[in-house]
Design a protein that fits this description.
The complex is a heterodimer of chains A (about 160) and B (about 375). Chain A is about 15% helix and about 35% strand. Chain A is mainly β. In chain A, the strands form two sheets. In chain A, strands 1, 2, 3, 4, 6 and 7 form a six-stranded antiparallel beta sheet that branches. A three-stranded antiparallel beta sheet of chain A has the order 5-8-9, with no helix packed on it. The longest helix of chain A is centred in the N-terminal third of the chain and has 12 residues. Chain A is elongated. Chain B is an alpha+beta fold and about 375 residues long. Chain B has an eight-stranded antiparallel beta sheet. In chain B, a hairpin with a 7-residue loop joins β1 and β2. Chain B is elongated and about 95 Å long. The chains are: A mainly beta (about 160), B alpha+beta (about 375). The interface between A and B is large, with 47 and 56 residues.
Chain lengths: ~160, ~375
């Protein structure tokens, strides 16, 4: 009898979902990269220093989107025209950057630049490919820097 | 009602559509009802979001608003401007140090900054809770968006099976019957009367819900429903040996948009987030039963030229559905009066789900009682049961 009367009340458990994800919802409005974001080493690109953070790295799959945040610093911050991220074997040509779509361009407020980079279906996330950052200055100059994609699983990826 | 095997089957179907996830359905209906008047609820409790205009002044320029914001927060990067309604303060969504998506409320008649919310606003929260149960959009469409969209199917299924079960439903329009003899009869009659009055509303909410399900799948398949905003080419960007280029003022961009689209009612402006973005000016023109993004003018921020225009004439069938779904689902096409009607109907739909559950509980209660009475008459069976 209890099951007969109670079976349709079980879906109350689904109402726990919003509770489960409430923290994530609020984090969308918080400035800091999530605690589990992967901080890549600070690099110099042109006259700027850049720090990249990759979110949810361990859950990323080929065909998915890599969510990244960037913090630029340098004396000539306002001279930075645009910055693009791409996952590739070789430095992507400036024309190819547009194929990745404009979501792969760093966008948002100056203090909170973010990008959503399509991960190619053929991407090798075990460390063979690199994350390329292409930065343009307002003078038309183009600068590139790359990070080897960090290995996953064992923490150390095979060196070639 | 006459029961036979056929109606038994339809009754079972009706039950299967409604009961197994009735609490989720009720939750989504209640949050949706609140979401459709969320700006108005906020208006009631938070004076900063109101737009009093005692001296009947005209709308100040967006440029003046942005200047006022820059004066208060020099490091603010305005990202979006939303003009929701004449009685609601204009919202400027800006990235501030420590708040990537703060909402600044500016009185559009006096130009005064009235307040700032550095986190999600009440409407943000209600819409996210209702639309996808706060489940993230990290990888494509949130699966909460699918879950809620599927409920549209349940609504339509419940509606169709109810109409088949009660073919004389229209009697309830002119001769509503509420028998008070027993709780079960009362809840059952109330369920029927509310349901009949809600036929068009359920059809609209169910069908648009089903559209959102389709929309989510299209997004996941990376199929663009609306043409993307045009982006500037690299050669269109200025090159400067020193400093950064001066963008044309937002007033120039808005004037260019108004020049490109006749009678444009501007509802939303997206300011360039990269050097390649245009100023995207969205709104409606003429036809009110479309979303706030139905027509658009894209303005080159460096020279004020129109980089692209999207108007109603150029819309394909899917794009029409996409634009019509929102006002039909939210009930915001006529301003306050249509929102009020949607709020009443949404509350009634919540009551419909609740009464459906009550009917079932009373029915099973009766069946349980009969079953246990039957069992008492057969002591051997009763003993086996315990």
């Amino acid at each position: 009898m209890t099951w007969r009367r109670g079976k349709y009340q079980l879906n109350a458990l689904l109402l726990l979902l919003p509770l489960l994800y409430a923290g994530h919802f609020w984090s969308l409005y918080s400035p800091a990269p999530p605690a589990d974001a992967l901080a890549l080493p600070v690099r110099t690109v042109g006259p700027w220093q850049v720090q990249l953070y990759i979110e949810s790295w361990s859950q990323l799959e080929p065909g998915g989107l890599l969510d990244a945040q960037a913090r630029f610093s340098g004396p000539a911050r306002e001279r930075l025209r645009a910055a693009f991220l791409a996952i590739d074997d070789a430095p992507p040509s400036t024309d190819r950057l547009l194929e990745f779509g404009y979501s792969a361009a760093l966008h948002g407020g100056r203090g909170h630049l973010e990008a959503h980079v399509p991960v190619p279906e053929s991407a090798d996330l075990r460390g063979a490919q690199s994350l390329w950052l292409t930065v343009e200055g307002w003078d038309g100059s183009v600068h590139r820097v790359s990070w080897p994609l960090p290995g996953r699983g064992g923490g150390i990826h095979a060196s070639k | 009602m006459r029961y036979n095997i056929r109606s038994g089957l339809w009754y079972a179907l009706h039950r299967w559509f409604g009961l197994p996830v009735w609490l989720l359905l009720l939750f989504v209906c209640v949050t949706g009802t609140l979401a459709c008047v969320s700006h108005e609820i906020l208006w009631l409790v938070d004076p900063e979001t109101r737009a009093p205009n005692p001296e009947q002044q005209a709308h100040v320029s967006y440029g003046a608003m942005l200047t006022a914001i820059e004066d208060s927060w020099p490091r603010a990067d305005p990202l979006f401007i939303a003009d929701d309604a004449p009685y609601l303060a204009t919202r400027v969504i800006a990235a501030l140090p420590g708040a990537p998506a703060a909402t600044i409320y500016v009185n559009q008649y006096s130009g005064a900054i009235q307040g700032i919310n550095r986190g999600p606003t009440f409407p943000d929260f209600m819409r996210s809770l209702h639309g996808w149960l706060l489940i993230p959009w990290d990888e494509g469409t949130s699966w909460g968006y699918y879950l809620v969209g599927l409920l549209g199917l349940l609504l339509l299924g419940s509606l169709v099976t109810a109409l088949v079960l009660d073919k004389n439903f229209w009697h309830s329009f002119y001769r509503p019957r509420l028998r008070t003899g027993s709780p079960r009869l009362f809840w059952s009659d109330l369920h029927r009367v509310i349901g009949v009055w809600l036929i068009p509303f359920i059809a609209i909410i169910g069908a648009t819900g089903l559209w959102y399900l389709t929309q989510g799948a299209l997004w996941d398949a990376q199929t663009l429903i609306q043409p993307p905003a045009p982006m500037l080419e690299r050669q269109e960007l200025p090159e400067l040996a020193q400093g950064a280029p001066e963008a044309v003022g937002i007033e120039t961009a808005v004037a260019a948009a108004r020049g490109a689209i006749e009678d444009m009612n501007i509802e939303w402006i997206s300011l360039p987030e990269t050097a390649y973005h245009t100023v995207e000016v969205y709104g409606q023109s003429g036809f009110p039963l479309v979303s706030d993004f139905a027509v658009a003018a894209y303005i080159n921020p460096y020279n004020g030229a129109v980089a692209g225009v999207r108007d109603l004439a150029g819309l394909g069938p899917l794009q029409w559905i996409d634009h019509i779904a929102d006002p039909l689902h939210y009930g915001n096409f006529g301003g306050l009066w249509s929102k009020a009607i949607w709020f009443v109907f949404g509350s009634a739909l919540s009551a419909l789900i609740l009464t459906g559950m009550l009917v079932w509980l009373r029915r099973t209660a009766r069946q349980s009682r009969r079953a246990s009475q039957g069992a008492a008459a057969r002591p051997a069976a009763a003993g086996a049961d315990r």
